[in-house]
Amino acid sequence: MSQKEITIYDIAEKLKISAATVSRALQNHPAVNAKTKKRIVDLASELGYQSNKFASNLRKQKTHTIGVIVPRLNSAFMSTVLSGIEKVANNAGYNLIISQSFETQEKEAKNAQTMFNNRVDALIISLAYDTKDYKHLNSFIKKNIPIIFFDRVADEIDATKVLIDNFKAGYQATEHLIHQGCKEILHITGNLIRNVYNDRLNGYKKALDDNGIKYDQKLVISNDLSEKAIEDCLKNDVLKRQKLPDGLFITSDPSAAYALTILKEAGVKVPEDMAIIGFNNDLISRVCEPAISTINYPGNQMGETIASILINHLNGESDINYMNTVILKTDLIVRNSSLKKE
Amino acid sequence: MSQKEITIYDIAEKLKISAATVSRALQNHPAVNAKTKKRIVDLASELGYQSNKFASNLRKQKTHTIGVIVPRLNSAFMSTVLSGIEKVANNAGYNLIISQSFETQEKEAKNAQTMFNNRVDALIISLAYDTKDYKHLNSFIKKNIPIIFFDRVADEIDATKVLIDNFKAGYQATEHLIHQGCKEILHITGNLIRNVYNDRLNGYKKALDDNGIKYDQKLVISNDLSEKAIEDCLKNDVLKRQKLPDGLFITSDPSAAYALTILKEAGVKVPEDMAIIGFNNDLISRVCEPAISTINYPGNQMGETIASILINHLNGESDINYMNTVILKTDLIVRNSSLKKE
DNA sequence: TTGTAGGCGTTATCAC
DNA sequence: GTGATAACGCCTACAA
To answer: How many CA atoms lie within 13 A of B112 on its CB side?
Structure first.
């Protein structure tokens, strides 16, 4: 099958020196004669020598690998975050092992286990919809392997978290609709176990309250935000109601865009009949007609922030334990889907 | 810092047996007494034993890790493919190391090097825009490590490729516009070094030719398909031309959607003044107004196919060398952006 | 069924 | 500045 590997011993032998010296030369260890070093490096590249990370990791007890567990890979937001993480991590010489929980705790736990067995130097995680306890992270905590949560975080665990102020964002979005004259604002959101959705809901409630609008439970719909779920709740519920809500705050842009097409199909005028605001500021929200108002959520920057913090910590340049929570800035972006007034 | 690891030796010692037996028990080796095995497994989980993959990999010369290099993580298409790959690979017990080339050969080569040093069992790659030679893949080829190309493939290398029939798709898209009455079809596409764009262009040319339309080089624009590039070529070139093209075939849906908004802003009526067809069938093409016609390109299925082929090969259940090219099916999806006739 | 022993490729610690 | 040597944790002939 595969050819035999070239090792430092092969190089040592050909050069009649010891493997130790070869190893040192290849790592730029200062205590090695410049000439011997050159001979070693030259021969190594001539032979196509490739250091074996496993042996090295085994010996050094460090892997230069970071594990990442996300609910799903295929969302615009997630891939932007990952892109940011990868960029910074890669530049710092770290590898990324990425896996998906598919929104279940079971898979999340299994993946965490694998990451652990692979001795990742750190774990970056955004929780699945249905993760309720955190046993699967215990091995990391015990061994003092840093964990960073992002977006969907666990308040119960004392680890660094990178996220946005979901309460404030929810408040802003709702307040904006109210300022535009909405009195009955439908809120379609994800699983309320997760901080992101729960905090946004609380922001929504507070905004209503501050503006003298009574909270109505019927106006809050929680589902998995899939196209199917959106279609289902609109067609089989909302659109059949006697009185249509005059505003919609829906916590993801793809969902908002999809809802918009369904509403338009059903003859609902946006924003006149119903004003809409989404979440994330994906490209999709800009190209709809009308363009959808949203909350700008800087995924790329979030990814880069996560990776920077982590790598500074791993390199011993800062201690992650002093940085418990990083809140990134969000902005309200107003477009035509919510503009009832001038 | 970190606690000391629990190894098979710790377990062996406590149980007064040999590490070899522990090792065997933990791998479900048949030749081990059921009772001893139970004692071992129980103690292992009690102690929170975690096998050290490095030692194991080093010993077994197999990593159960697959390297993936993609141009960029943050596109709907790419994340769908990755999601498919991850799903299948993970279920088969393989890890994924993922990195981005950011469309440069330099970074691609560097990442390939890292993957190699990490002794990935296989490499999955979609080429960067500007990759012109394949030296950086030589070490894989020499060592007989399987490489699978997808989407943006290298014809020059004898490796398995998973892709669509870009020529046919380009032909179909163009033909459709012609059937709708377009006579001057603008084609905005990516770097023509890459098969995906070059093949689509050839399909475009052939469709023109078959329908008696003369190929006009001014109607083909090749850039990096970024928002900036799209905006630039439309505003500073196309929209300033004396005669506007009456059709647009643009090889990605996000670009198509973005182009649509720019054209609408400029007062161009779609499809009346200009019919548009995109590529990929991302959600974004459905939510625009008018909805954008496109070529359905099954990313998820592509990812799953890639991973299945690879894993069957790695498990020795089939030989990848007999499967040189896999072509996935695409479909023309007609929506309002290109419907000039009923 | 279990134990012994050697080695996977690298690096760190001593000596010299 | 260089070399010997002993780990790192696991796996697998081979022997018992």
So the answer is: 26
